[in-house]
Amino acid sequence: MENFYRTTPTLDNYWRSVILFGRNVASYKFALGKALIELSENSSEIVKLEELAVPFSKYLCEHLTKEDIQGTSGTSMFLDACRNYNSGNISQSTLVEETVKRGFNNVIDAFHVVGSDPIPIQFYKDERSSLGGIRLTDEIYKLREDEQFTNLPDEIEARWRLVETAWRLKLPTSTLIVEYDSSSENIITSDHKRTAITRCRETLNGYQKGYCFYCNRFMKFSEYEVDHFIPWNLSNHTNTFFHQSVSLDGIWNLVLACKQCNGPSGKWGDKIPYIESLKKLDARNEYLITSHHPLREALLKTGSNPSARRSFLNKVWNEASNLLHNEFVPEIKKKITL
After folding, report:
1. C-alpha 243 chain-centroid distance
2. Are strands 272-273 and 327-328 parallel, antiparallel or unpaired?
3. Which of 29, 119, 137, 207 minimizes the number of CB atoms within 10 Å of its CB?
4. Residue 287 to residue 307: CA distance in whole angstroms
């Protein structure tokens, strides 16, 4: 079977590889990504650093009001300038000057690097030495025309909040419980109190890329439904086949589905997804773990290695199948390799 989450060289996949898999030593990458999306609405290809500094610093200042930790370094003169702006101690013009001076030292060079190498295409060219800014490329404008484009700002925001949480949490990972809260549609942590981390749909879509988990139909953002792969109505039976620290609301069991697959005519209520879907779920979870997803520790609770995690999923699926009996077999809309 084809690996459901193998990356193919499409523009949205390249963009997501930067946002999802680039190094997370500071949140500047996310601020730059959101700034590029905002500035690409304009027709001008040349973006001076003074112009780029406005949305770039704006997004960082917004996040600093919610979470003061924005990187792994203990000190940052640029982030201190953002904090001073939030406190009313400096003007926006001073903040822009500080951003031009200190904010872009590493992020412009590193934005396109995934792993140890840059991705094959670029959404801008670094022309600071000749033009005092960057030049937006055709790829960023083509990306705006892609049907996936409207989802990308929300995915950046979701990833940003996940990384912030990973930096902030200092509890032993063995005690951390991460679950889905259906009332707020947030992923939450239970660390003496229930704390919202980020929106669940935006987080999952970064990996499903707009396609229904079951039938592969492309979905508009308003059509996404968070689905429990093993139906949530089996929660009362979890003592039969779960370890104590794992629940049906865990991210390992959450996928995005279209209304047809998740509705009364689909798997909703009393059906278990057919066995081929289990292979997809296993591939998705392994993908999240190997990509060093900020919630990988929650996924590792299903097993310490791939074999143990497959064994866990197989046991859960069989126990659920024995309880529900009916299988849901989706009508595959198209064959895709993500």
Report:
1. 26
2. parallel
3. 137
4. 14
pLDDT tens-digit map of 226-271 = 999 998 878 766 555 555 556 888 889 999 999 889 887 666 657 8
Cα-Cα-Cα-Cα dihedral sign, residues 116, 122, 123, 127:
positive
For tokens 């047809």, name the residue. Answer: 260
Number of H helices, E strands in the chain: 14, 12
Q: What is the pLDDT of residues 188-205, one digit of tens each?
A: 776 555 667 677 887 788
Tell me which residue has tokens 């590193």.
Answer: 110
Neighbours of 1 (CB within 10 A): 7
- Please state, in angstroms and rounded to a whole number, the distance separating the CA atoms of residues 1 and 4: 8
- pLDDT means over runs of 10, the chain (338 residues): 47 84 78 96 91 97 93 88 97 97 93 84 96 96 89 88 75 56 74 65 80 88 85 69 67 90 72 88 89 76 90 88 79 68
Q: Are 24 and 163 in contact (CB under 8 A)?
A: yes
